[in-house]
Amino acid sequence: MRPTVFSICEAKQVEVVMVNKGEDTPFKEDLATDVLEIITVFSARLYGSRSRKNKKLLDGVKKAVEESQA
């Protein structure tokens, strides 16, 4: 049988304190929050990859301009 987190903490004399956010939220509200967090993560990755691509493109243009002026 695999040890649980609680049994490991007990063996190491570590106190586990469970903190509850307070009131329980409805399932639909939790689901909506989770979906919004997922959308936020993917949009941040999308815009991040676009900004890297744009930066690379701008660096290439700057390099080409500098080479043409030399």
Task: Please describe what this structure looks like.
The protein is mostly helical and 70 residues long. It has a domain at 24-70. It has helices at residues 5-11, 27-69. The chain is elongated. The termini are far apart. The model has no long low-confidence stretch (mean pLDDT 82).
**How far is it from the N-terminal to the C-terminal residue, by CA?**
72 Å
Count of discrete alpha- or pi-helical segments spanning 4 or more residues: 2
- Secondary-structure element series: HH
The tally of strands reads 0
- Overall shape: elongated
What structural class is derived from the secondary structure elements?
mainly alpha
Mean pLDDT: 82
Main sheet? none
Strand content: under 5%
Ranges where pLDDT stays below 50 over 5 or more residues in a row are: none
Radius of gyration: 25 Å
Question: Which assembly state applies to the chains in this document?
Answer: single chain
In helices, the fraction of residues equals over 70%
How are the SSEs placed, and which strands pair?
Elements (H helix, E strand, L loop, with lengths): L4 H7 L15 H43 L1
Task: Quickly describe the structure.
With 70 residues, the protein is an all-alpha fold.
List keywords for this structure.
70 residues, mainly alpha, 2 helices, elongated
